[in-house]
Design brief:
Layout (H helix, E strand, L loop, with lengths): L21 E9 L5 E10 L7 E8 L6 E8 L6 E4 L8 H10 L13 E9 L14 E7 L2 E4 L10 E10 L5 E8 L7 E9 L4
Antiparallel strand pairs: 1-2, 3-4, 5-9, 6-9, 7-8, 7-10, 10-11
Length: 204
């Protein structure tokens, strides 16, 4: 019940290529669980923003009254990566040694925010549910840790997909939970849910 809401939420999005990208933003109004109304949209051309700077933007909503006030910072990705299994970042003995030194006891208080990182190898799934009429699925896997989200490629027409990808996340809160969800790609429609597992970091 506010025409001037304050959210103060922070979201991280990751780029791994130089493609041109737009940040699309929608503002919605909810009366209850069933009724929703679009209050406006706006777009930000990320490629037009200088990197390593925080930009304060007031974005008017298209075809609707009102505007959004946002802080957007474009910065190089640190600690987040996707790689193939054969070039696993921790496979190099020299890198392992550097990691061990970085997180040894004597360096514990050098950077309080650098809690550590999580490396996940997504190998394969077995006996997935068939979501298509053909008796197959087009599965892909989404990994979420805090507000970081990465995903595998889609393996088409397969109930036993092999992804063989390595994902690296920076850890911001040791109490976070790694959520791994498998979806079926469905063209232009929203993907179908095929299953999920949640792994608390403290259990690793």
């Amino acid at each position: 019940k506010s025409a001037n809401p304050q959210w103060r939420e922070q979201f991280d999005f990751h780029y791994f290529s130089d493609r041109k990208d737009m940040l699309d933003i929608e503002v919605w109004r909810k009366d209850n669980k069933k009724h929703e109304e679009l209050l406006g949209t706006c777009h930000v051309d990320i490629t037009a923003l200088p990197i390593k700077q925080t930009h304060c933007l007031e974005l008017p909503l298209e075809k609707h009254p009102g505007s959004l006030l946002m802080l957007i910072a474009v910065a190089p990705c640190t600690g987040v990566s996707i790689s193939d299994l054969c070039v696993c970042p921790l496979g190099d003995p020299n890198e392992r040694q550097q990691i061990s030194q970085r997180y040894c006891i004597k360096n514990s208080f050098r950077d309080i925010k650098d809690i550590g990182f999580l490396q996940v190898k997504v190998l394969k799934a077995v006996d997935l549910m068939a979501a298509d009429f053909s008796g197959k699925s087009d599965p892909f896997c989404v990994l979420e840790l805090g507000n970081d989200m990465l995903q595998t490629h889609t393996v088409y027409k397969n109930l036993n997909p092999e992804w063989n990808k390595v994902f690296t996340f920076p850890i911001k809160d040791i109490h976070d939970v790694l959520e791994v969800t498998v979806f079926d790609e469905d063209g232009d429609k929203p993907p179908d849910f095929l299953g999920k597992v949640a792994i608390p970091l403290l259990s690793v």
